[in-house]
Amino acid sequence: MHSRADALSEGPLHPPGPAERKGLQALGGAAVVGAALMVIWIMAGLWLFVVPPADHARRADVLLVLGPPDDRMDYAEQLMQHGDAGTLAVSSPVDNAGQFTAPICKAATAYPVICFHPEPFTTQGEARSLQALAQQHSWHSANVLTAQFHITRARVIVARCYTGDLRMLDYSPQLSLGAWAYQYAYQSAAFLKVAVHPGC
């Protein structure tokens, strides 16, 4: 334990010198810049991921559901029953036997359903598959359905590959705060990849 005499023997505290003040100022400036960048990222993310610009459904040759074929399939079936597309195309995973896992691929429907497994199983692979299927089936217009946090990036990727009339439709899943934080980070990193690889 230090006595009061020991504390006094250590001498008075000196104010920081010029070099120390410059270091503290630089640290404070970096903190302000970092906080500003974080605010900009969050605000940009609100527009890009939470409430992104989306199109209204309009009659098209095909409704393409980007994977995974989860709860969004209910909305896709509603759109098909409403007559918003002539054909439903679904990007589906496959099991070990090479069979499509999306239930719609084996269901009886009043409209044509085309299931496919793109290579690679990514948005870019799906965009390439859409263009190939459009050429094969003479499709000239497409509604593309995906989650709202994915729609802005998907629009860029699909438009690079698909040459027909394109409308991007959003599906809004219920996400926890942690899931939103993950999507913010994942989609931000994925946008960087899109910028680095500009081709189809």
Topology:
Layout: H1 4-9, H2 18-50, E1 60-65, H3 72-81, E2 85-91, E3 113-116, H4 123-137, E4 141-147, H5 151-161, E5 165-171, H6 177-196
Parallel strand pairs: 1-2, 1-4, 2-3, 4-5
Helix pairs in contact: 4-5
Transmembrane segments: 26-50
Keywords: Membrane, Transmembrane, Transmembrane helix
Organism: Arthrobacter liuii
Description:
- The chain has helices at 4-9, 18-50, 72-81, 123-137, 151-161, 177-196, and strands at 60-65, 85-91, 113-116, 141-147, 165-171.
- With 200 residues, it is of the alpha/beta class.
- The chain folds into 2 domains: 16-51; 60-196, Rossmann fold.
- It has a 5-stranded parallel β-sheet with strand order 3-2-1-4-5, sandwiched between helices.
- Helix 4 packs across helix 5.
- The termini are far apart.
